[in-house]
Amino acid sequence: MLPQRQRLIILVLYIVGLFVVNYAAVGQFPTLSGGKSLWFYTALASILLGNLLVTPYYVKPADVISYSVAGIIALGSVQTWSQWESKEQAAFVFGCAFCLAVLLLSVATILTKDVVSEIWIQWHQTFRLLSNALGSQRVLFSVVIFVAIFIFHRHSNREVTVIILSWVLIASRPETILSHIVDRLRLIWRAGPPVQVCGTVAAYQAPGIVLIRQDGTRTVPFGTLLLIRDPHAPSKLTMAVDYVGRDEGLLLRAVEVGTPAMALEECESIVTTLPDNAVATINFSNACQQAIAQSQVPDQQARFVGVVAPDSSIDRLFFEVVRALDIKEGALVEATIGTRRVAYQVINGMTKEDIVFRKNTFGFVRGEARKIGMWSEAEDNFLRVEWLPDPNSPVLLSHPPAPGPLPPDAIGHFPGTDYIARIKSINELVTHNTAILGILGVGKTMLSLELVERMITAGVKVICLDLTNQYSNQLPGFFNGALLEQERAELQEIGTAGKNNVQLNVEEGGSVNPFRNTLREQLRQFITTNQSGFFRGYNPSSFEVWRQDSRPYQGHASMATLTPTEITRIFTDVVLTIVQELGESEDARVCFVYEEAHSLVPEWTSAVAEGDKAATNGTARAILQGRKFGMGCVLITQRTANVTKTILNQCNTVFAMRTFDDTGRGFLANYIGSEYADVLPTLAERQAVFFGRASSCENPILIRLNDQAAFRAAFREIHPPPAIPIAAAPHPEPAPVDEEKDEGIQF
């Protein structure tokens, strides 16, 4: 295949040659009119339309139409019917009729392209066959030229001979023949032999793998292209992979690779010199090397890590690791399904041993990966592919897209790549509840703070019940600090005063009812208006709320303070009442953040006080009812076993971070699968298995979460904290929470 620049040079030479030939034949250069110049313009149209620039390698029906119309116009332009003899008229009619017939065949081919009837499909194939055969530029323009010769040149032997020889030369494409000969001569006479036999085929591990018994001790490097002569099948090109033992010689494995047609054509001209079942290295021509460099072969050589192994399924990939490269837990690899490149995430690895040949054993590493999907540039996301790759097909280390600015909905990235994990929907993150699970110091609170900012940006009011008091210090500017301090003081004063409020009706004693009523008014104002910000943070253990436990006797009664779990129920019930008054909503309105959830909504076996069991049940019931009114929660805990499963089971989005306890891992296995649950003890800080309704991926994924400082710098530039009408009380500069050294992608 000649480059277009060379074809343009050859075109110029053809045109110059046509002028010379026309002068040699008729004794003059071509004129704009007259039958003597018909052959010249026909040949010129042939090399312009068919040979070199427009369609040098194939003919479409539309091209045939242009050829036939050009032929009819050319014949019609020199028509002098009254001056011709009958046989010249007959030749003219034949030429026009031939062009018209080809024109009709090509039109019929186009009109019957989309037919579904079997008989019409047969007619379409017939029309296409005849159109391609008769309508090629060589055939059609040859007819026009021979008509021109018969009418205008047949009386001069010199003209006939020169024109026919010139046209035969043009139609034979001498530049193609010459280029082919030059390439073959280069192949023969270049430095070093064109092929060198290095072994014989020992066995085929169908499909796609060849086991080669190597002759001698010369090492064949990984990625070397090997030509195999198979006496019972077409010869094939393979890529050397690795050595797997020895028998009578070294045993080398090779995998079949997709190679350009030019390379296969060159191989066919060489393979006949090889004995049956021979394996040889080949010294390709320069043009062939350029074609290979532009194919997928270099990409496979650079990123090849292994081959698809047995037991792979639709969602799980097992692959034999040939080259480790940067393979590690969480890395992405690719396998081809049909014509699509599908990404898988590595989650496990194990050593295996296999019998290779005549009881020779071969130890290898087998990787295990879960399907992520096919990357879509248009959607900037992974799409699901519902099938599995072919056995023994290559597995490549994922080639990430070019890095760029991270979108605001990116929650993290796949380790070692620039592929992004996204929050698909803040609404579903809230209304269908979210759980952040993991041991101390892995970044749970940092992730929660990021989610809170995203919720506030989406217009969701956030109420954080936080025993650590971190959230208020970390989110200045998102709430009216002075107003919040005033409201907290009012609640504390009302709660403390209840210690001496003894009533005949036990339900009216203490400060539970006044506390609830005041809290309802405060939160109604917070939820229904934007005057006091979008965030409220409370520490349930800081409130002293009294409950009367007995009937009064001589003005005294038994009093008890509410536990943080019971105060959590009051907050949740109050908010549920408010959102119910507002009516049902598909959009998220309010999100509770339960920090240290094992202390706020404990499992009944972990409840410290008897009243905590009923309180937890009440909180769980309110969360379950709140979804249809736009209320949900984010539950954060380091003790999965100690949190009420009534709420945890309703968390449709899960961020699972490092955890060790078997109870927690067993529970999470139901969500993210046993494979991902098994990797939880080895996760690094700021890594999480992300899965659920709010995830942009349909399958569980292991991601590296955003760095807090970089996230805030980028996110707040686009979404600054909302303006609060009343000046906020001063807060200390927040220190990073659970911040670890971040060597990953910067948000």
Question: Can you give a write-up of this model?
Answer:
- Helices cover 41% and strands 21% of the residues.
- It contains 23 helices and 25 strands.
- The chain has a ten-stranded mixed β-sheet, sandwiched between helices. A six-stranded antiparallel barrel has the order 1-2-5-4-3-6. It has a six-stranded antiparallel barrel with strand order 7-8-11-10-9-13.
- The chain starts with a helix and ends in a 29-residue tail after the last helix.
The biggest beta sheet is recorded as: 10 strands, mixed
* Distance, first to last CA: 47 Å
Q: What would CATH call the homologous superfamily of the largest domain?
A: P-loop containing nucleotide triphosphate hydrolases
Q: Which of globular, elongated, flat, extended, rod-shaped describes the shape?
A: elongated
Spans where pLDDT lies below 50 across 5 or more residues: 726-747
Per DSSP, the total helix count is 23
Class by alpha and beta content: alpha+beta
Helix percent reads 40-55%
Q: For the record, what CATH class of the largest domain applies?
A: Alpha Beta
Strand content: 15-25%
CATH architecture of the largest domain: 3-Layer(aba) Sandwich
The overall strand count is 25
Estimate the mean pLDDT confidence.
81
From the 3D structure, determine the CATH topology of the largest domain. Answer: Rossmann fold
Briefly say what this structure is.
The protein contains 23 helices and 25 strands.
Which features would summarize this protein structure in a list?
single chain, 747 residues, alpha+beta, Thrombin, subunit H, Elongation Factor Tu (Ef-tu), domain 3, ten-stranded mixed beta sheet, six-stranded antiparallel beta barrel, 41% helix, elongated, disordered C terminus
